[in-house]
Amino acid sequence: MNKVNSLINPAITEHTHYKTPNLDDTEINLLINKLDKHNLLSRLKGMSEINRFREFKNRAKKQILVAMKEATNGIPFNKIIENEFEEINPFEAKVLCICIALNTELGFYNTKQDFVGFSKASHNESLNFLNNTLSGTFQYIGEKEDKFIIRHRILADYMVKHCADLKMLKEAYIRVLSVLAPELVSTKAYTRKFNLYKSLINHKILFYRFKKNMELAREVYDSLIPYFEYEPHFWLQYGSLEPEGQGGNLTLAENYINQAESLSPDSNFIQNAKCNLYYKLSTAQPSYSYALEYKTKADELSNELISRTGDKEPYIYHIHCRGRYYFILKWIVDKKEKIQKFNELRKLITLVGKKHPRDKKLDQAAQAINRAYMNLGSDDVNIEQPDIT
Question: 84-164 belongs to which CATH class?
Fold first, then answer.
C-alpha cells in the first residue's frame, strides 16, 4: 500500500479506500462461477459444485482474499497470515499492529488517540502507519467510523499467539497498559478502559503467553507499579502469576499477595489466592515439618472460605482438593496412609460434585483423584499420576 501511495500524485489523482465485507452465499456462488470462467479454480477444478461451495463457505468469515487463496491454492490460513505480518514494515508498525491485536482479541476497539499514544514514532509517522501501512489490516467500526480493530478477531488472536515473538509481545503489552494507566489512576469508575486493563493483566493469560520466559511477564507488571502500587487487584494478579506452572518465585508471590491483602483484607478473591499459595508452598518446602505448617495454614483458611462461599461458588473447593491432592503425592509415603488420605479426598470431592454438578474443573479434579487412587493398586512405584490443573 505504501509503494502504491508513493507513486500517486494527490494533486492529479484522487483515490478512495473501500472495505471488503464478509462473503455471503450468493457472493460465494458468483465468485466460484467467475473463477471457473477464467480457469482460475486451481485445486477446486476437480470438485463438485457442492464441494466447491463448502470450501468457500468454511472460510466465508475471513477476508475475501484470504478465503480465495485458501480455497483455490490450499495455502493454510496460518501461512497467509504469517506472510502478511512479515510484510508489515517498519518494525514500529509491527509493534503497533500487535497493540491493536491485543485489544481486538479481547473485544475492545481503539481510537486514533489510542494508536498515537501506543506509538514511539512521531505523530505524522504514526498516522501514516494507521492510514497506509496498516490500512488493509484494520477495520473501522461505529457510526462515525472513528474506531478500529484488526479486521477479524481470529486474525488478531493468531497474530498475538503465533506472529509476535515474546519480546515484541511484551513491548506491546507495556505500551497499551502505559497508555491506559494514567487515565485509570484518576478515576474509580468501571469504564471500558478499566475492563480492558483487567483483562490485559489477568495472570493466567500472561502466564500462558510468557511461560517460556516468565521474566518478561514480570516486566509487564513492573512497568505498572508506579501507577497501581496501591491497587489491590494489581497485586493480586502479580502475586498469582508466580504459583502458576512450575518454577515460579513463591517468595515474591507471598509478598505481593500480602500487599494485596493489606489493601483489601475482606476480599474473597485475595483470600482464595492466599490459600492456593499456602498449598503451593506446602509442596515446595525442603522438609516435611515446614511443609506441614503451610498445609495446616492452607486447610484452616480453606475451611473458613468454604463456610463463607462454598455454597455459592466452587472455586475454593477446587483449591482445597487440589492442594491436598498434591500434598499427599509429595509427602505421604506409607501406602496404607496414602490410601486412607485418598479415600477421604474421594469422599469429599464426591460430595462437592453433587453440590456443584456442572463445574468442569471439579469434575476434572475428581477424575484425577479417583485415577490416582486406583493407581495405588499397581505395583509400579514409578507410575505417573494425573495432574489437576
Answer: mainly alpha
